[in-house]
Design brief:
By secondary structure, the protein is α+β, with helices and mostly antiparallel strands. The chain contains 7 helices and 18 strands. It folds into 2 domains: about 1-235, L,D-transpeptidase catalytic domain-like, CATH 2.40.440; about 235-310, no CATH class. Helices cover about 20% and strands about 25% of the residues. Strand 11 (about 180-185) and strand 12 (about 190-195) form a beta hairpin.
Length: about 325
């Protein structure tokens, strides 16, 4: 291991975006009880020099989620004046809203600070094929600023086989792949850490650890104490409520190795819905559900209205 949109619409007006700056993607007020959606989708116009990687760093978004939200747009040269969707509206992950929750399928972390009515959310790099990140419950066991790195034997052998030998020890500094901070987890060999690479956040790039933008890992380290629980899940289909309406957010499924999943997506989305007992009295718009599952753009989309509530057809086929 690498010790390793507003309720009335999906997009936020540009004027409001510029007024809020980038804080929206980091700290979001929790919704009222019974609701599950935070943030608002934003739209910006690309400058000539903009790339998805640069826009992601500036707005705390990962590369693949930028790609998914902007199909057909060139990630490396969007073009002067091209409208770029920033997918900064999220359905909160299922389960308790406490500590750190990592959802592998969306390459994203959520941190719920104790006693505060907010959530902080950050993009992540996760384990690549053959070096999967685990689905498990853990906790932060140690926090280390300016870490050095001693590559484990498996990584030394991998790099040597590829003609790219590594030193036995990399001291702290700009060339250290752990970046300015690391947080050890109770699962041996796994870390949350920064990076010495500008590219790769929001992708399958690590040897199983959780890679963050450096300014993000420093913010998290300042907030999350040792002992913070870390719940790691793999949920490509998230259902949530907002103002009585039901939304679905779909991401490309990953299997347990971190590779694209071959699971039947229609079965998977129904199984995810069946976990939400409180939604069993709604009739969903299955045509829209099919479109959301096919798009996999990571944007919450309305799939049911309270006015449509009668007996649910969760057994319906997509």
């Amino acid at each position: 291991m690498l010790s390793c949109v507003p309720a009335v619409g999906r997009y936020l007006p540009l004027a409001a975006l510029f007024a809020m700056g980038s804080a929206l993607a980091l700290e979001l007020p929790l919704p009222p009880p019974g609701d599950d959606i935070v943030g608002q989708v934003q739209v910006v116009k690309a400058k000539y020099e903009d790339t998805f990687a640069d826009l992601g760093v500036a707005n705390d978004l990962g590369y693949l989620e930028m790609i998914a939200a902007n199909p057909g747009v060139d990630a490396w040269l969007p073009g002067e004046g091209t409208e770029i969707i920033l997918p900064t509206r999220f359905i909160l992950p299922p389960g308790p809203r406490e500590g750190i929750v990592i959802n592998l399928a969306e390459y994203r972390m959520y941190y719920f600070p104790k006693g505060q009515n907010v959530v902080h959310t950050f993009p992540l790099g996760i384990g690549r094929e053959g070096w999967s990140s685990p689905v498990t419950a853990a906790r932060i066991t140690a926090k280390t600023p300016n870490p050095g790195w001693s590559p484990p034997k498996s990584i030394l052998e991998e790099h040597a086989a590829n003609g790219d030998p590594l030193p036995a020890y990399v001291p702290p500094g700009p060339d250290n792949p752990l970046g300015p901070y690391k947080m050890s987890l109770s699962v041996p060999g796994y870390l949350i850490h920064g990076t010495n690479k500008k590219f790769g956040i929001g992708m399958r790039v690590s040897h199983g650890c959780f890679r963050m933008l450096n300014h993000n890992v420093l913010q998290l380290a300042d907030m999350a104490p040792v002992g913070t629980p870390v719940r790691i899940i793999n949920e490509p289909y998230k259902f949530g409520r907002s103002n009585g309406k039901v939304y679905l957010e779909a991401h490309a499924p990953l299997d347990d190795t971190g590779a694209p999943s071959m699971v039947d997506k229609h079965t998977a989305v129904i199984n995810a819905l069946l976990k939400r007992d409180e939604m069993g009295d709604l009739r969903l718009d299955w045509e829209v559900v099919r479109e959301v599952v096919a798009a996999e753009d990571g944007l919450p989309v309305k799939i049911a209205d309270p006015d449509m509530a009668i007996a649910s057809s969760t057994s319906a086929t997509l």
